[in-house]
Amino acid sequence: MDERRRAPVGLDRDAVIHSQRHSMSKKTPKNKPKRSSKRKTSPHLRPEPAQLRAIERLLEAEDFAKAIERVQQLVQRFPDHGGAQGLLIKALRGGQGSQFAAVVVHDWADRHPQSLFAQEQLLVYAVEGHCLMLAERVAEQVRALGGEAPYGFPLSDEIKTALCTLVDGTRADEAAMVQFDRARLCMNGFAFSKALRYLEDLELTSARNNRITCLFHLERIDEALALALESWRRDDENLFALGWAASLRLYLGDVEGASGLCTRLAMMTARRVDEALPQLIALLLLDQPEAAWTAYERTVDTPWWEGVQDLTTATMTHLGACAAARCGELKQARRLWQEIEQASPGFALAAENRLAAADAETLLPSALEMHNAIPASRFSAMRNQVQAQRTHQAEKTLIGLSASNAYLRALYINGSEPLRQAVSLVLMHRLQQHDTAVAEVLRELVRLPIGTSNDRFKMLKALREAGQLGEDELIEFWDRDELRAIKLFEMEVHREPTDSGLLEALDSLLDEARDDYNDFQFNACESKLQSILASFPNHPQTLLMLASIRHMARRRTEAEQLLRQAIEANPDYLLARCNLARALIMRGDLEAASDLLEGHREQHRIHILDLIHLNGTLAMLESARGEDEVAESQLNLIESFIEDDHEAEQLEQVRRLVNHVKAKREGFFGRTLRALARR
């Protein structure tokens, strides 16, 4: 997961400025033996210099994750040590972004109101985050402590009047706007509990709006919806609240109720960018791209849009481009994404979508990132668990998400690649837990040109294992550039050890022969194989291993004879059929190769290695016929079953064979032309 995250798109800034934010716990570990009371509070206690130097070395090496972990432990033990606090701020800024460092600075300055250095640091971060009313108050404190405030402070009466003027034209109290800025600083750092405490006493429209966002990210969804509806009833032009109300109803599974808000949502024009974002998001989530595109066009025609340039407007433009793309207006979408790339080069989704749209006729673009779609309380827990390498715990945290299937479906269609991966895990887990309603969602998603073929095969596999696909059922599946009707063969893939069928002594001799083979001791290997064949002349695994030795010695006719012998005596021995078919493919006898595999393409139960070799050989056959997309589909199907390194290595060997077939088919001139085309 990318640690550098933008502010939640559901942040209402009221007087139009932007900001950033995260918090540190001030608690000490409980239930520890107490040696003396001054251990916790004495200002003379300090970290060892070696501990601080070790963290400095981590910062120099830009190992921010480890530096954050180490310095957080020090700060928890020595909360008033300036050096440790400074290292924590530096580590957070480098590893997660300035918004997280800003909250630590804010907490530090709040605990040390008489520290000039702490107040100066807070002033820097408040200005950087455009929390100018907070910066005005901190600059006053800096001057009182004998410091110098930067140019521009104190603010002019005109600027303060503009900052305190609300969207309805009324003027807020300066102290209220300072508190509002503190809440924004915390929200930008995902410290939503802290932000909520600052917002609760503020009777401002924007404060109520931001409480909606905080409640969502704290997973208090019912409370967030109730507040959104109340805020909209107070002010029926409040698109921020109305957009959130529609999204929250969808989150809770009330699709009809969410759709019922769309008519009003689609016809209104936002009064400022903070209201336009929830409006567009809700319309996209509710499959209303035409309404979203029209709303975007109305927004950019408003007088307040002209000249507004920050990350929030870049996000707005990106959502407008996504709406345009889903309406088929790819030229418009590419133009908007290009504008974002020029203005905000770090906006990854814009660049990814523009590249994806370069040659596409249709596109379902990535509109939303994970931190804006999944409650941050859960997202942050997952991030911390992944960083601590507790992957299983992170997966349990993810699948505990309470969002409805309808909301998850909307996120998959509109989400970034990491968000789609997370959503698919949740949906497939629910299917395993016998939530049969998920089956229809997955059936729809495999039809869409989103993600990779491998992702879609995994969904089909989950449907099959849950008994949600009939044995002979044709299912529509997006394969490369078109929608195909395919039959997913019904086979149970197992990994049980196979019985050689030999007596115990000869079985041990076969194991020794395998060891010799893997150690390239081919003479010793063949001697043991011949001993086995003396007693069991048609033993399939023995004949296959001997054929492999002949093949490597370039005695290929003998190798093929041994394979035919194995097949004749053991018609169901798939590995021998696959190896012989590969030999036939490499010399161009495609019909004979196809005949060998006929009747073995679909089995009800198959070992994983047989599956790899069977579908790998079929991929070689399709590639030899020039059907590269079909070949790739076969390889993707194999990949959906891979579970360990050995199986992955077998798949890579198969891929190399398929590439070899393709190169052989194209020949020298074909490869040369492809190389020229790439220049």
From TrEMBL:
Basic residues: bias regions: 19-43
Ranges of biased composition (kind: Basic and acidic residues): 1-16
Ranges for region Disordered: 1-49
InterPro entries from the UniProt entry: TPR-like_helical_dom_sf (IPR011990)
Gene3D superfamilies for this protein: Tetratricopeptide repeat domain
Protein name in the entry: Tetratricopeptide repeat protein
